[in-house]
């Protein structure tokens, strides 16, 4: 499932403030997010800016050149991101499955 095909979801002001703080402090760390294929990915770097693209969403730009849509971020330098709840559901999806062991 491509992020480009997923509607942009609103992001809380608290998370946007955490991004602004990372930009201002020039913090370096890892960002875990859902990539364009809906898979968990990560990038390490410094957040340079947050930019809005009309009809596409708001993106983080890292010093590595990585561009990450902020509503797809699972964690930003260890802080819970906008897509964390989706990740939690994704991670626990098989908790109720039998893993091939039917009674």
Distance linking N and C termini: 33 Å
Helical content stands at 10-25%
Architecture (CATH level 2) name: Roll
CATH fold naming: SH3 type barrels
**Helix/strand order, N-terminal first:** HEEEEEEH
CATH class: Mainly Beta
Number of β-strand runs: 6
Characterise this structure.
- With 103 residues, this protein is an alpha+beta fold.
- It has one domain (3-91): SH3 type barrels (Roll), CATH 2.30.30.
- It contains 2 helices and 6 strands.
- The chain has a 6-stranded antiparallel beta sheet.
- A hairpin with a 5-residue loop joins strand 1 (28-34) and strand 2 (40-53).
- The longest helix has 13 residues, at 13-25.
- The radius of gyration is 15 Å and the shape is globular.
- The N and C termini lie far apart (33 Å).
Question: Short summary of the structure?
Answer:
The chain is 20% helix and 35% strand. The chain is built from two helices and six strands. It has helices at 13-25, 84-91; strands spanning 28-34, 40-53, 57-62, 67-69, 73-76, 79-80.
Write the layout of secondary structure elements.
Layout: H1 13-25, E1 28-34, E2 40-53, E3 57-62, E4 67-69, E5 73-76, E6 79-80, H2 84-91
Antiparallel strand pairs: 1-2, 1-5, 2-3, 3-4, 5-6
Key features of this structure:
disordered C terminus; six-stranded antiparallel β-sheet; 103 residues; globular; 2 helices; alpha+beta
């Amino acid at each position: 499932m491509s992020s480009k095909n997923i509607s942009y979801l609103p992001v809380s002001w608290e998370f946007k403030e955490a991004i602004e703080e990372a930009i201002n402090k020039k913090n370096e760390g890892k960002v875990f997010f859902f990539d364009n294929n809906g898979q968990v990915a990560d990038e390490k770097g410094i957040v340079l800016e947050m930019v809005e693209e009309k009809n596409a969403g708001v993106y983080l730009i890292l010093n590595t050149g990585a561009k990450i849509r902020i509503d797809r971020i699972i964690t930003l330098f260890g802080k819970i991101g906008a897509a964390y709840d989706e990740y939690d559901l994704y991670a626990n999806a098989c908790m109720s499955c039998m893993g091939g062991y039917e009674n």
